[in-house]
Automatic annotation (TrEMBL):
Pfam families xrefs: ECH_1 (PF00378)
Source organism (scientific name): Paraburkholderia rhynchosiae
Taxonomic lineage of the native organism: Bacteria, Pseudomonadati, Pseudomonadota, Betaproteobacteria, Burkholderiales
Name recorded for this polypeptide: Enoyl-CoA hydratase
PANTHER family, per database record: ENOYL-COA HYDRATASE, IP11341P-RELATED
Gene3D superfamilies assigned to the protein according to its UniProt record, in alphabetical order: 2-enoyl-CoA Hydratase, Chain A, domain 1, Lyase 2-enoyl-coa Hydratase, Chain A, domain 2
InterPro entries: ClpP/crotonase-like_dom_sf, Enoyl-CoA_hydra/iso, Enoyl-CoA_hydra_C
Length: 281
């Protein structure tokens, strides 16, 4: 059972959805220069199990650090749901030692850092349930598109836990400190209209259309100069501490963008009234 899921035995889940083969809990496919990362654990509504945490971390590390052909990433879930939060069945066993628990949490932190500070834009495509750590994953992304049937909940307090996977930072950044405090304390389920109104979601689509819209947005991001986007993401992470930090980053990083081939190409394309071709140099 995971946060936001109705009680159901493993046997019932497997009979309904098929047993997890364990080999493709995270799937990756490419559409041009956009990578689509799918959490593939539908029998548990893509719960944020330890195996899922590790697989997502490995996947994003590879996409950010080794896959030069990928310029933008879409994160979504299989089976009509994004992610229903932590897998509570993993918490029914004897409580692990403190250091082991710290490491389990640290895996989620590493994943958050990869998504939030990584060099490539990440778009979340949300259908169905987006609870607990699922909400954390969506909030870590640069842009979130959800269907009008999606439901969101900061469900941690309902199971006696604190928000994790970066949500203590990202939720106030998305919706403001006061609203974030309310969502965390009350743990209410909110609908898609409310999620967009408060800034948790950037765009709402018809049910079943979130991934299509996310792919279109990711392709748009992928068409921009990669070096500029990487430096912009770094600036957005580091410029929020003070106005002096923002000024320093502007002075330090803008000269780097001016010296890129992509900047030269963008200016030439504008003057020649054609579409620019960016190479990431």
């Amino acid at each position: 059972m995971n946060i936001g899921e109705s009680p159901m035995s493993v046997e019932q889940n497997e009979a309904l959805h098929g047993a997890d083969d364990g080999d493709d809990i995270v799937q990756v496919r490419h559409e041009g220069d956009v990578a689509v990362v799918t959490m593939n654990y539908p029998q548990r509504r893509n719960s944020f199990s330890m195996k899922m945490r590790v697989a997502l971390t490995d996947t994003f590390q590879r996409l950010f650090q080794e896959d030069a052909a990928t310029r933008a990433i879409v994160l979504t879930g299989a089976g009509g749901h994004f992610c229903a939060g932590g897998d509570l069945s993993e918490m029914q066993a004897v409580t692990p030692p403190l250091l082991e628990l710290r490491e389990r949490i640290a895996v989620g932190v590493r994943l958050f850092r990869l998504i939030y500070t990584g060099t490539k834009p990440v778009v979340a495509a949300v259908e169905g349930t987006c609870f607990g750590a699922g909400l954390s994953l969506a909030a870590a992304c640069d842009f979130t598109i959800g269907s009008s049937a999606a439901k969101y909940c900061c469900a941690f307090t309902k199971v006696g836990l604190l928000p994790d996977t970066g949500l203590l930072w990202t939720l106030p950044q998305k919706v403001g400190g006061g609203k974030a405090r309310e969502l965390m304390l009350k743990a209410d389920v909110i609908d898609a209209a409310t999620a967009q109104r408060i800034g948790l979601v950037n765009q709402t689509t018809a049910p079943g259309e979130a991934l299509t819209a996310a792919l279109a947005q990711a392709a748009r991001f992928a068409s921009y100069p990669p070096v500029t986007l990487a430096l912009l993401k770094a600036s957005l992470v580091n410029a929020g501490n003070s106005i002096e930090d923002a000024w320093r980053l502007e002075v330090d990083l803008n000269p780097l963008t001016r010296r890129t081939s992509d900047h030269t190409e963008a200016v030439a394309a504008f003057m020649e009234k054609r579409k620019p071709v960016f190479t990431g140099t």
